[in-house]
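Q: May I have one protein plus its fold?
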Amino acid sequence: MNILIALILGAIVGYFLKLGEKGKSINGKLQQLGVIFLLFSMGASIGADKDIIKNLPSIGLKSFLFAVATIGVSIVIIYILSEKFMPTEEKSNFDKECIIENNDELLNETCEEGK
């Protein structure tokens, strides 16, 4: 809950406090230092935990499989959605020809039959 409150307060402050170019540069450097510190502290915590070090091969394999599964499912979903919602070249050309041939009536029966 504290993280959510900090995030919301940061968004509110950022909305009302407009930073100049120098302020944005300083803010970017502070963010980078914060991320580096966070990664260092997480690495130190993981390195100090003997169970995690012992199970590192198993954790690594599970992480790899999870990443591969996520990428695979994303590719399949994007393929399905693009086939459903994005016109193919053949259909796209038909629509262009239909519009060119029927300038006055774009939605007539001839154009509808080809779809």
Summary: Residues 56-115 form one domain. Residues 56-85 form the longest helix (30 residues).
